[in-house]
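Subject: Sanity check before I submit

Could someone independently write out the structure tokens for this chain? I want to compare against mine line by line before I put it in a report. The sequence has 258 residues.
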Amino acid sequence: MNLPLRLLLTASFLLACALGTLRAADDTRVYELRTYTAHPGKLPNVLARFRDHTTKLFEKHGMVNLGYFVPMDAADGAADKLIYVLEHASRDAAKASWAAFSADPEWKAVRTASEADGKIVAKAESVFLGAADFSPAIKTGAAATPRVFELRTYATPEGKLDALDARFRDHTRALFAKHGIVSLAYWHPTDVDKGAGHTLTYLLAHPSREAATANWAAFRADPVWVEAKAASEKSAGGSLTTDIKAVFLAPTDFSTLK
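---
Independent answer below. Compare away.
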């Protein structure tokens, strides 16, 4: 490659990096991971309320519906949990949207009607998240073939989150793709009491549960991964994770991400 062309490519790369950094700095979007636990036998009622009313009211008040899921395993709440992700323009926008939604007469009427025979939601949990710098843009809509999803949460030792991020940025994501694991989003909690500073939460997609098992086995046996894991832990002086949680999810019929 001649020198002028090499210089041009280098300059283009640096400009792209700079523009990406500026866009990241200007991006105020936040994501909200919410988990609803239904009263016994009431999950169908919760799903019906979201399908027929809630998602539309969220949109009315400026919230973006990204994905709605039910855990696939009984141990994770298959019979009583709804897990979903919203996008907000900012944390302040989220606060304003929730206030407007809660005060909306249409929502109040829907909630009253749906609770004619008693409350249907026993517990609601919320975690606000910021996108990691290596997180891809989330593409909603149905895939060409059905998929299952996997929500994973990694807790790190104090001061090791940057090292974990670097391993994902430089190695893990590419190896996931190599082994058929689709990366959808990587997030960090924004609040200290929800794990800010030592937590990575991410969402994956697989063609099936069986494919997930096979792909994870191939990933873990890959010599490139074995080497990257060992090198990252040696550099950091130990394991980069203290706890790993994984929940397999099936999309609801009304989920925008399928």
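---
OP: Matches mine. For the report I'm noting this point. The chain has two domains: 30-130, 131-251.
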